[in-house]
Design a protein that fits this description.
- This protein has 896 residues and is of the alpha/beta class.
- Helix content is 35%, strand content 23%.
- The strands form seven sheets. It has an eight-stranded mixed β-sheet, with helices on both faces. Strands 9-8-11-10-12-13-14 form a seven-stranded mixed β-sheet, sandwiched between helices. Strands 15, 16, 17, 18, 19 and 20 form a six-stranded parallel β-sheet that branches.
- Helix 11 (311-323) links the parallel strand 15 (303-308) and strand 16.
Length: 896
């Protein structure tokens, strides 16, 4: 993860065009023309030995002849020339390049090394950042920079657009310009050899010129890096994504149902949701969504009330809402009485609230005022069709003040053309999301709802360790290692059930029998009725070979069933080895619903959890949801809620509601299992029975493989590192040192407010009186993969925790350097707490093999200067800056 030197790419003061040309329609000529036409105020330096002048600019023969080292180089030359050009630019001091050339991966030398690889190797010693290759380029309209060969420029604006598709780049530029949509940055990633989505998201998250980020995505190569950057960006501004490739070409072959069901697009969808971004399906929706989200207020709920002057319009909106999995508000009795007092008797007497087509302005206002106070409603959709009774513009002028003063989200639909154009403009100018049809308005509202849901998922940071159950990790490790030592990749059903039990998941009693006779004896001990299943390492789905017989009532029936299964296996799969039979008690649960809980390993995002309706027809039913581990109860409930079977679990007719918490606990237990055991590649619990009494696993299968070195980073989202928590005694009182969490936001504000203004200036280098929401999110909602913040907290007499101090470190992508900062509550300074936090931070960075720790402070900050001297930092004053720099070699021994 790196934004290192990206400011040279996006904010250059000088640009060289290597391969500049006068040849009509060539890339070199187009790029030079775009640079000049864009109005870039910095130096533009064409490079080409064939010319002396181009477009009244002096042309330089090669990089060595450039008068200065350009901040940014745009390369338009053939593939074979690029590695040498990158090396020459790096030698001159250039820190960023855009490589427009395609085909670098296809050209290889006699050793099989591609031009692509050589280019990256040439850039590495100089930390020269590369956008592309095979890209259209980049535009930063705010500084007049059009570093692309696009056919048109971009208007300035506050939206950043990032795309992997070059064709889409030019199409969207044209589309947006015709609609007067502007951009802060417009970026074509191309092949993303160096600068990728993760880098760009990280940069744009801190870009003050960017208020929202739009992305067209085809694929991701490094999931942990992408998720880390995406979650960081989504905490500070809306991020909206179009993901191409929604339709799978075919289900992949897998040993488990989960592996066959969890398609890659569903995994991407789960990742986008978990990162707090919003996914839309079309390019037009992309821009519509950012407009909606930019105007939306923080939503407290999802219940929508529809106010309309036409019954049919209300029905259309209701249909769209319910089909879109939205929630129609149920109006309170008091609200209905108030509406009865101001509306004609023919009004709809419910939601949608149809105030009838002859409604005058006062009727609109009175109805809106009442609905805005209804406690059962969270948002309002206002729909109006023009009538001859009252001008639409009068209605708009009367409603706008109510909408602007409301804390609730209000979206509107002005149905029609010229008759409502002025009214639509008045609403739009007032910042009210405005649409042309009821369906479009509902779609916009549901974007607000889904964004709220995803932002809630973003806030969830499950722990790396189980908190409400104690798994027997040793038992599981013994089972897995024994199977691997035996050369097996599939565990037997009894082994899989032992693992379930070790992680607190109830499973039916199961006994292994070597022969049909042994199976009958086992059944006698378990008690009838029983189920008998074959055990074969080659057979994953036993029912496909008739390898399951249920409800056997006698020993003779068990013997006959086992022999018959053995015969069928020999006929249908002569290659399969019969290892015996499993005998288990029949689970008698007449109200139970069959579910599936599983794990598969996605090639990009790593372990993936699946939940849905189970049974032998699981692929046919195709009712499931996918999520990324780690999970907690909020995330587990979200997964369950996204399935159709969730409605059955809620109870119906004479069936009581199932124990939903038990289902969610099972999801968490499976999540913990896959977090703890990287050897597990696939897992199925199918069926998992659930009723009002809880859950029980009837069948389970697990596929394993030896642990790989890269398994440390196999989770796309790093869990909250609970293992780093430490209880200590300070000044005779207990303290807890732990990583910061998103829910620390409120106490962090209290901590900040207790700081002396001068201490705040020392920490932030500026005077500030309060934390902005984006700043608070940035400080408390960290990604533990690339940043760490330890807080010292203590419990007050009233049981509420308070923050006393914070020490944080942010590392570069190569884990070479980490930058630290520390602040202690002003009334507690000088009592050793800062030293405790710094020791904790230094030990953590050493454990990650970080090479050095650096920091900066104002020269007058004597407190930090005194502490870093004691810790062994090297201190250096930065000339003409009023600041001092610190550096600690972490490879050395700790400081006493």
């Amino acid at each position: 993860m790196s934004i290192r030197n990206l400011h040279f790419l996006f904010e250059p003061r000088s640009v060289a065009v290597i391969g500049a040309s006068s040849k009509p329609n060539s890339v070199g000529a187009t790029v030079l023309r775009n640079l000049i036409a864009g109005g870039f105020s910095g130096a533009i330096m064409p490079v080409n030995p064939k010319y002396q002048m181009l477009d009244e600019l002096e042309v330089y023969a090669d990089v060595a002849h450039l008068p200065i080292a350009p901040d940014l180089a745009i390369i338009c030359t053939p593939p074979a020339t690029i590695p040498m050009l990158i090396s020459e630019l790096g030698t001159r001091g250039t820190k960023a390049a855009i490589v427009l050339t395609a085909g670098l991966g296809a050209v290889k030398d006699i050793h099989g090394v591609s031009i692509h690889q050589k280019m990256l190797a040439a850039a590495a010693p100089y930390l020269l950042r590369i956008l592309g290759p095979n890209c259209v380029g980049m535009l930063a309209p705010g500084i007049g920079l059009n570093a692309s060969f696009a056919h048109t420029g971009a208007l300035p604006g506050k939206i950043a657009f990032v795309s992997q598709s070059g064709a889409l780049v030019t199409g969207v530029l044209d589309w947006a310009k015709s609609r007067n949509i502007g951009f802060s940055k417009f970026i074509s990633l191309g092949d993303g050899a160096d600068v990728d989505f993760g880098d760009v998201l990280d940069y744009l998250a801190g870009d003050g010129e960017t208020q929202a980020i739009l992305m067209y995505m085809e694929d991701i190569h490094v999931a942990r890096k992408f998720m880390s950057a995406a979650r960081s960006a989504a905490r500070s501004k809306p991020v909206v994504v179009v993901k191409a490739g929604r339709v799978a070409e075919g289900a992949k072959a897998a040993a488990s149902h989960t592996g066959a069901l969890a398609g890659s697009d569903e995994v991407y969808d789960a990742a986008i949701r978990r990162a707090g971004m919003l996914r839309v399906m079309t390019t037009e929706d992309l821009f519509g969504a950012v407009e909606t989200l930019a105007r939306a207020r923080p939503a407290s709920g999802e219940r929508l009330t529809i106010l309309t002057n036409g019954g049919g319009l209300g029905v259309m909106a209701t249909d769209a809402l319910i089909c879109g999995h939205g929630t129609l508000a149920k109006l309170e009795g008091d609200t209905l009485q108030k509406l009865n007092s101001v509306l004609p008797s023919t009004w709809s007497h419910g939601n949608p609230v149809d105030i009838i087509g002859d409604a005058p302005v006062d009727r609109y206002v009175q109805a809106m005022e009442i609905l805005l106070k209804d406690p059962g409603s969270d948002a309002i959709l206002f729909i109006h069709a023009p009538t001859a009774i009252v001008p639409s513009i009068d209605i708009a002028n009367a409603i706008v003040p109510l909408a602007k003063n409301s804390s609730r989200n209000i979206v509107s639909c002005w149905l029609g053309g010229d008759a409502v154009a002025d009214a639509r403009r008045i609403f739009s100018d007032a910042g009210i999301p405005t649409y042309d049809t009821p369906e479009e308005a509902i779609s916009g509202y549901m974007q607000i709802v889904q964004y709220r849901r995803n932002q809630n998922l973003l806030m969830q940071v499950p722990s790396s360790l189980a908190t409400d159950f104690v798994p027997d990790r040793t038992e599981v490790q013994m089972i897995v290692q024994a199977a691997l030592a035996d050369g097996r990749t599939m565990l037997s059903e009894p082994e899989a059930k032992r693992i379930m039990t070790a992680y607190g998941i109830p499973a039916v009693e199961t006994v292994i029998a070597a022969t049909a006779g042994d199976a009958a004896n086992a059944a006698q001990k378990i008690g009838f009725p029983v189920a008998v299943k074959i055990l074969s390492p080659e057979i994953s789905h036993k029912t496909e070979v008739g390898g399951v017989t249920l409800d056997l009532e006698t020993g003779e029936a068990v013997t006959a069933a086992a022999r018959a299964m053995r015969q069928r296996l020999a006929e249908l799969r002569p290659d399969a080895r019969l290892r015996g039979f499993s005998v288990q008690a029949m689970a008698r649960r007449p109200n139970a619903q069959e579910l599936i809980v599983g794990v598969t390993t996605d090639p990009v995002f790593g372990p993936v959890i699946l939940f849905g309706q189970g049974g032998i027809a699981v692929e046919v039913m195709n009712d499931h949801a996918v999520g990324l581990p780690p999970l907690n109860m909020v995330l587990a409930h979200d997964m369950v809620s996204r399935t159709r079977v969730a409605k059955l679990l809620a109870g119906y007719r004479d069936r009581p509601p199932a124990d939903l918490d038990a289902v969610c606990r099972t999801l968490i237990q499976v999540s913990q299992l896959v977090t703890d055991m990287p050897e597990i590649l696939e897992l199925d619990i199918n069926p998992l029975l659930v009723d009002e009494h809880g859950v029980i696993a009837l069948d389970a299968r697990i596929r394993i493989a030896p642990r790989e070195p890269a398994d440390r980073d196999r989770l796309a989202i790093r869990p909250y590192p609970q293992e780093l928590e430490a209880h200590i005694t300070w000044q005779g009182q207990p303290l807890l040192l732990r990583p910061i969490r998103p829910e620390d936001g409120a106490q962090h504000v209290t901590f900040f407010n207790a700081l002396d203004p001068e201490d705040v200036r020392f920490r932030m280098f500026i005077r500030t009186r309060e934390l902005q929401a984006a700043q608070l999110a940035r400080l408390t909602q960290i990604d533990y993969d690339r940043e760490m913040a330890f807080i010292a907290v203590r419990k007050k007499d009233d049981g509420v925790w308070e923050t006393l101090g914070v020490a944080r470190a942010v590392s570069d992508p190569d884990n070479i350097t980490t930058e630290f900062a520390i602040i202690v509550r002003s009334d507690l300074k000088g009592q050793g707490l800062g030293r405790i936090l710094m020791d904790k931070l230094i030990d953590y960075c050493r454990s990650r093999d970080t090479l050095e720790m650096v920091g900066e402070a104002l020269a007058e900050n004597t407190g930090i200067l005194k502490m870093v001297n004691k810790l062994g930092f090297k201190v250096e004053r930065i000339p003409d800056s009023g600041t001092i720099a610190f550096r600690l070699d972490l490879k050395g021994k700790g400081v006493p």
